[in-house]
Amino acid sequence: METLDPERFSETEQAPLRTLIDELLEAQQSLSAVERFSQRHAGDAIPAQQKYYRELIPLSSPGPGEQYAFRVNLDACTGCKSCVSGCHSLNGLDEGESWRQVGLLVGDEETESYQQTVTAACHHCVEPACMHGCPVAAYDKDSITGIVRHLDDQCIGCQYCVLKCPYDVPKYHAKKGIVRKCDMCQSRLKVGEAPACVQACPTQAIQITIIRLDEVRSVSGPDQRMIAGAFDSSYTQPTTRYHSKTSSPEHVRSANAYDLRLEPAHYPLVFMLVLTQLSVGLFAAQIVNGFWNLSGNGAGMTLLALAAAILGVISSTLHLGRPLGAWRAFLGLRRSWLSREILIFGAFVPAAMIYTALQCLPEFPMPMRSVATSILIVGVLVFGFSGVFSSVMIYADTQREFWKISTTAWKFFGTTLILGGAAAALFTASFLWIGMVMALLPLKLALESGVFRHLQDGGMTPLGCTARILKKKLGRLVAMRFGVAVLGMGLLVVEIFSGDSFFLRGLALVCLLTGELLERTYFFRAVKAPRMPGMAGS
Questions:
Q1: What single-letter DSSP state applies at residue 366?
Q2: Per-residue pLDDT tens digits for 438-477
Q3: Which residue, among 427, 431, 415, 436, has the nearest Cα to 495 in the 3D structure?
Q4: pTM over 0.85
């Protein structure tokens, strides 16, 4: 019989029993590869560069009457463009796209040796012109941070904000059909991380600060500028602050102040403006014909006026990056002249179509036909002339000197009357319209040529720059414009003495229409667009 070893029995009794729970707890203590990777990189939740830029961003959110703003130390800026590169890389911008630029100021006198690099992005203005001009409310100013954001999904690519902003901040992205801009890296600021440009600057020249709105308004009066060469701050009240311990010379200018730069032609808008103004003028001429009992082809006048209106509106949609979203244009009605123009011409065309149908179908049975026709033609004229006035205000509201309201109104309403009269002369036996055209056209040409007196301006004033562009870069275009206008007027003179010739009147209309299209082309191309000093532009 086998005997039991007491020591062996004792060790067996003392051995712990392993349960399923023990095995599961042990398995939990051994991490998988994914868990080990996650644990190793958990410390990277805090940006590695935070120790360098933590003092360059505010520790708290803006309070009432405050907002975030860029603060630039000009003494520390070397013009290395690291901020441009960092913004491009960290925001995933496409090739050639840039939301931040670096410009240059220089002394304007031989005895004043001076050079200063200037970095700039969106200034997140107190009264942002881009937001006020947008017809579809694609801009939003954050009520807490004051950051002006662009809503990409709302944008229709009309590019009016590009014209409105005096600092050349919004950039049109042709592939996406929208505008994009700096948003001060708002998503980074929310989690305590500095914007890309702040992180990238090796000399800590850029920082984010909190600024009081009443302070911004106090330094944004007429003729005040946040830096030499920038636009008048009273327009948008920009919040960026540039600081330097050294004072700049009295005469400082942008390094590219004497560059003659052509702006985009915007050909769809050229045709839209001229054709809609022709349409409005021709409808007005038809009313005058009826009032004075002038014989003529009323149906032909109405059809031509309607065709011009439809073609003009269609051409305007070719300027939109996302035309299918144009129905949202009513969203900016309270602040945007472009929104008003879209809605007015949107009502003008249907009213003109119904009026044309009544004119061309006199036998169509309709109760109170004469009353309806009278109401419609009044509506057509009200919508038409209101639309032309809105077109004037669209460009006058950009604050560009070449587009100021006095000259733009004469040009647009002059085109309305001249082309409307020339087109009416095709269908009317009276010489009334020919006489009106011959009286108004010289006045309009004289107004247009008035810009050339600014060739004598000292320095590069906006109109002086425009005059030099028209002379040196667009001289042939200007000569063609005046040439075809004079030719059209000469044909009308021949028509007076030769008798009733539809061919001569038609040829004169073609010449005058061509002249107005050429004038509207350099209306866009020759304007001096404001931007930050020394910046290359879009």
A1: -
A2: 999 999 999 999 999 999 887 679 999 999 999 999 999 9
A3: 431
A4: yes
